Amino acid sequence: MSILVDDDTRVVVQGITGGEGKFHAGQMIEYGTNVVAGAVPGKGGQEVHGVPVYDTVHQAVEAEDADASVVFVPPAFAGDALFEALDTDLDLVVAITEGIPTQDMAKVYKRLSEVDTRLIGPNCPGIITPGEAKLGILPGNIFESGNVGLVSRSGTLTYQVVSNLTDRGIGQTTAIGIGGDPIIGTDFVDALELFEEDEDTDAVVMCGEIGGEDEEEAAAYIAEHMDTPVAGFIAGRTAPPGKRMGHAGAIVSGSGTGTAQSKIDALNDAGVPVGDTPEEVADHIEDFL
Amino acid sequence: MKLHEYQAKEVFAEAGIPVPDSQLAESVDEAVAAAEEIGYPVAVKAQVHVGGRGKAGGIKLAENEEEAREAAEAILGMDLKGYTVESVLVEAGVDFVNELYVGVTMDRGEGKPVAMVSTQGGVNIEEVAEENPEAIAREHVDPAFGMHPYQARKAVYDAGVDREHSRDVASILTTLYDLYEERDASDIEVNPVMITSDGDVIAADAVMNIDDDALFRQPDLEEMQEAAYENDLERKAGEYGFDYVRLEGNVGIIGNGAGLVMTTLDLVDYYGGQPANFLDIGGGAKAERVTNALDMVFSDENVDSVVFNIFGGITRGDEVAKGINEALEQFDEIPKPVTVRLAGTNAEEGMEILNTDLVKVEKTLEDAVQRAVSDAEEVNQ
């Protein structure tokens, strides 16, 4: 079992004719993902990797019965593309695009509260259920099917931790990159809730980073509601206050909130061991299993 | 992107927010001439992106020509928390009876902008927020509608602003919100808004930070950025299009992806070294970006050794390896020892291509970091 995506998921790729969209649509198909349509305004009637392209998401969903979309649309137009996806009654929208203006995302976030669709991202690597489907840009070959769930704010850090697990023969149910922006759809608590409900997930890795209070909220949720054991990692212990560390959301404010230490303390208080290195995170997971 | 006070005040004045008379000066003579024209008293204010300028000696008051000259001589060229002051804003002194705080920022937890007003302006508002949060009136704004006029009034009344000034303060808040939205600000604030002895309401300071991701639709603000780089290395990083932050240590770090680069910094610290920088070369990095990244860390004189850590998803290990070889083959002697660790897509091909006469290669992140830390220690012995 898994959460959110499997080999029945029918995927429309928004921006499938662009460089990134085309390349990764191909990679997704190669991995076995059920990519049924592309959506690009003005490109309706074309085919990419043998997949039909439609002018609108509505048309794509209607013709191909898609239930999820992956968004590779450039940042200036991504807010609009997300509104289009959210207005189409999909179950899941995964936004890969990096660099969407924050105020555009605030409007999308407001719309999100009015619909039943789940959003993952933006500025994220996507979601993968090993051996079944990947929606996004994660390198499929490092993942292996298994019983550990993973949720992370960062792409390449996810790959690092996953390879530490896979190298020891520890596979994954599903891995979700929730994204490094200040405003995102699915957050840690949402993802943890899904893993807690999943019978096949026996342990969860949570990779956080400096900025915001999502990790603290996750710690409170874990303490209250979770029986599945969780191990953590927090990036940015050495980040100076007031400097944005790559991700728009990764910034320690002047007053000292959002620091790595406050997140590590909160997780430890919730009984979650936090590794000093990615290798130590894998040690903790091995102990749980 | 941060605007300087003088830049933000230009934007505010254009939008109709009252600001004191002021002129920018880059030399002592210019500053004195500005003071003479504006009339005394004046405030001479350092234009640098550093918080707490006043306490650090970056703001001085002058009652006459002699004091104006002294103030400008003291401030221009001074080192303020690591940054050299290259210009000052000479501004008409305001005789005030009260100082307020007014600002708008994004509440990321709520996913909504929040407008804030406090009668405890003039001091560090973050301290007020921590010690006496009720002293700040907050009003969340639905970004689909913008701020309703009643919300500006409500924030001002809730904060307890005097009745006779409430209309003017609400008007400043309304204009700030409009600017926040129209100009894609991430933070915008006036601290303090001064109530003068004549009963006028005036914006005595100005903070305006712009969402970097929205600069593509704010071309006139983007033009101001040239003046706002903090040092030559950050300017260079901007030209190369890297996410870069300079730190205090001596182990140079290059990697891909913000979370993994932060982790590499943390591991340098964990293994007893000190990170010199954060440098994210981003996804899909090709040979030229690799060359540019090495140029960045080599041109930082603090750097004694370099760790290059790539986990390929979109980025391909063989491309990176080619870039590293090309960059290093240009040197007769490698300026600083470089340790490389490649993983993920095409990592094995990359490892085979790497010229091990020029770089050291490690298989795991932990080993690569420890190698770079011990290289840096050796240089310093």
UniProtKB/TrEMBL annotation, chain A:
Residues holding CoA: 17-20, 43, 96-98
Ligand binding (substrate):
159
SMART domains the UniProt entry points to: CoA_binding
> Which InterPro entries does the record cross-reference, listed alphabetically?
Cit_synth/succinyl-CoA_lig_AS (IPR017440), Citrt_syn/SCS-alpha_CS (IPR033847), CoA-bd (IPR003781), CoA_lig_alpha (IPR005810), NAD(P)-bd_dom_sf (IPR036291), SUCC_ACL_C (IPR005811), Succinyl-CoA_synth-like (IPR016102)
Q: Name one GO biological process term.
A: tricarboxylic acid cycle
Q: What is its EC number?
A: 6.2.1.5
- Keyword Nucleotide-binding in record: yes
Task: Give the catalytic activity.
Answer: GTP + succinate + CoA = succinyl-CoA + GDP + phosphate; acetate + ATP + CoA = acetyl-CoA + ADP + phosphate; succinate + ATP + CoA = succinyl-CoA + ADP + phosphate
Catalytic center residues: 247
List keywords of the entry alphabetically: Ligase, Nucleotide-binding, Tricarboxylic acid cycle
Source organism, top-level taxon: Archaea
Q: In which pathway does it act?
A: Carbohydrate metabolism; tricarboxylic acid cycle; succinate from succinyl-CoA (ligase route): step 1/1
Q: Which residues form the CoA-binding domain?
A: 4-100
Q: What is this protein called?
A: Succinate--CoA ligase [ADP-forming] subunit alpha
Native organism is Halobium salinum
From TrEMBL, chain B:
Q: Which reaction does it catalyse?
A: GTP + succinate + CoA = succinyl-CoA + GDP + phosphate; succinate + ATP + CoA = succinyl-CoA + ADP + phosphate
Which residues make up the binding site for ATP?
A: 45, 52-54, 91, 94, 99
Cellular component terms (Gene Ontology)? cytoplasm
Q: Where does substrate bind?
A: 256, 313-315
Q: Which InterPro entries match?
A: ATP-grasp, ATP-grasp_succ-CoA_synth-type, ATP_grasp_subdomain_1, Succ-CoA_synthase_bsu_CS, SUCC_ACL_C, Succ_CoA_ligase-like_bsu, Succinyl-CoA_synth-like
Q: Name one GO biological process term.
A: tricarboxylic acid cycle
Source organism's superkingdom? Archaea
Cofactor list = Mg(2+)
**Co-factor note (free text):** Binds 1 Mg(2+) ion per subunit.
EC number(s) per entry = 6.2.1.5
Domain ATP-grasp spans what residues?
9-253
What keywords are assigned to this protein?
Answer: ATP-binding, Ligase, Magnesium, Metal-binding, Nucleotide-binding, Tricarboxylic acid cycle
Q: What pathway does the annotation place this protein in?
A: Carbohydrate metabolism; tricarboxylic acid cycle; succinate from succinyl-CoA (ligase route): step 1/1
Q: Name one Pfam family in it.
A: Ligase_CoA
Q: Where does Mg(2+) bind?
A: 191, 205
Cite the GO molecular-function annotations of the record.
Answer: ATP binding; magnesium ion binding; succinate-CoA ligase (ADP-forming) activity
Q: Which PANTHER family match?
A: SUCCINATE--COA LIGASE [GDP-FORMING] SUBUNIT BETA, MITOCHONDRIAL, SUCCINYL-COA SYNTHETASE BETA CHAIN
Q: Which family does it belong to?
A: Belongs to the succinate/malate CoA ligase beta subunit family.
Please name the HAMAP family in this protein's record: Succ_CoA_beta (MF_00558)
Subunit (UniProt): Heterotetramer of two alpha and two beta subunits.
Role description: Succinyl-CoA synthetase functions in the citric acid cycle (TCA), coupling the hydrolysis of succinyl-CoA to the synthesis of either ATP or GTP and thus represents the only step of substrate-level phosphorylation in the TCA. The beta subunit provides nucleotide specificity of the enzyme and binds the substrate succinate, while the binding sites for coenzyme A and phosphate are found in the alpha subunit.
- What is the protein's name according to its record? Succinate--CoA ligase [ADP-forming] subunit beta
- What species is this protein from? Halobium salinum
Its organism's taxonomic lineage begins at: Archaea, Methanobacteriati, Methanobacteriota, Stenosarchaea group, Halobacteria
